[in-house]
Predict the 3D structure of the following.
Amino acid sequence: MSHKPINFEKKFAKFNDHWSPRVIAEMNDYQFKLVKVKGEFVWHNHPDTDEVFIVMEGSLEIEFKDNKVMLEKGEMFVVPKGVEHKPVANKECQILVIEPKGVVNTGGAKSDLTAHNDVWI
Amino acid sequence: MSHKPINFEKKFAKFNDHWSPRVIAEMNDYQFKLVKVKGEFVWHNHPDTDEVFIVMEGSLEIEFKDNKVMLEKGEMFVVPKGVEHKPVANKECQILVIEPKGVVNTGGAKSDLTAHNDVWI
């Protein structure tokens, strides 16, 4: 096993593209992914799993069909499985996403924003 | 579903005891737990699961039988399942622990530090 800590700031410094998750760690069959986001994502849901968002820098809005939540740095939110949601960030925002390995960022929605999966940094 | 963000700082302000995890969120069958730690914990392991530590404030040392890792604020570490470890914090440290629901903080080790499980704030 490695005995190196995983430093969020150093990992975020390694990439600049938006909506393209980078895996930094695995716990059992779950992955920890860093994402830089800006602008509007697509409406989608994950039918088989909850999804955790933690804001590391900036502000993230998550829109739901009937409501929305605004997350600031140091805040987290659990999107329940099957719930349609659309992340939106007016300015660039850095987030940590936690979900089972294999989950596609756009869920079942077809989109140009569908990212390659399992890209480690 | 709730549409309230979970704010780490506000949650940490709700308790002051050490080595006593407070659950703040669930994702599928996993829990997110805040813990204030100070001093030496006990040697233990979790035979059935990895365990994630994220340092939110302060510094945490995790000792292993053959090595150790020092985590600062903004760093995380995954302790693999079955690996003996002992968290140590010289000064109070605030951490986020992520692991499956039902995991006991001291694993199979009997200790005065064994905490009540599933205490929400």
Summary: The beta strands of chain A are 6-7, 22-27, 30-40, 51-57, 59-64, 68-72, 75-79, 85-100. Chain A has a mean pLDDT of 96. Chain A has one domain: 14-100. The interface with chain B takes residues 1, 3-9, 24-28, 30, 32, 49-52, 64, 67-72, 74-78, 80-81, 83, 98-100 of chain A (CB under 8 Å).
